[in-house]
Amino acid sequence: MRNKDCSIIISSCDKFSDLWDANVKLLEKNWADRNIKTYIVTDKPTDKKFSNVEILSAGEGTEITERIRFALSVIKTEYIILLLDDYFLTDPINDKKIEDCIGVMEKENLDYLRLYTFINAKYFKEKIGDRGDIFRITTDARYNINLYPCVFAREFLAATLEGTMNAWQYEVSLTKAGNAYGAKCALVNPNALNMLDVVRKGRLIRKAKRYLDKYDLYHGDREVMDVFTTLKLGTAYRLKVILPRGVTSLARKILKKCGKKFYSDEYEN
Predict the structure, then answer these.
(1) CA distance linking residue 160 with residue 175, whole number of Å
(2) Most buried by CB count within 10 Å: which residue of 91, 168, 197, 208?
(3) Helix axes 167-181, 64-74, angle to 10 degrees
């Protein structure tokens, strides 16, 4: 990338360090020409080392907000590409496209740009800039700002890190923080990058396990998700894709009345 005012953070912790080798191997395979500093940000100090990825250890027992705050005390770039340790890049990255996205952020004064879309992308139609594939995100609903691969403006990222939150609490808080900040947010649709989601609820996703086995990428002992949970999560995802938002909101209200707990309740409270 010609734009050097950018760094990559791969947010992680010691409990997920078994994923680092595979994550970095795919990163180097699919984005070898990125030419920007890349960091794994973790809690406990580690003996692991990578040639093109620096490991920053914030201290044992630190949560994601504390770890990223620590990283920002070391990383001084204006833009941060934020990735998670269990998001594996599976296809070559178009370096020029990522650079152009950051250029749009600079031109339009965006605070957040999601590089990987999700099902709620279909609700955003207002285009930003002259590319035709960047759309404005509102900050009035849960998870509009989330931890899918994205670019944060440094100042806004710092503003989201107040307090001590775990990863689930932090993601729930992001859109509300964006609303309070008055953040200008957008997403790229279609994706600026493709990824494989590898872990859910601490276990390897079955689809991901097949991919990792096929390419001999993972040699840890993490438990694999059972078939029933896989089907349940897959069904929930497909329903979110095909059903209107009003229907899914109603279903959520019914589940809450039946005693179901949601991390996103913290957003409403």
Answers:
(1) 9
(2) 208
(3) 60
CA–CA separation, 63 vs 166, rounded Å? 5
Mean pLDDT over 52-74 rounds to 97
Closest CA to 41 of 6, 94, 80, 3: 80
Cα 164 to Cα 126: distance, rounded to the nearest angstrom: 34
pLDDT tens sequence across 81-122: 999 999 999 999 999 999 999 999 999 999 999 999 876 677
Buried/exposed code over 66-76 (b: 16+ C-beta within 10 A; e: otherwise): bbbbbbbeebe
Helix extents (H) in the chain = 20-30, 64-74, 95-108, 154-159, 167-181, 206-214, 227-242, 245-257, 265-268
What single-letter amino acid sits at 249? S
- Angle among Cα 7, 97, 92 to the nearest 5 degrees reads 85
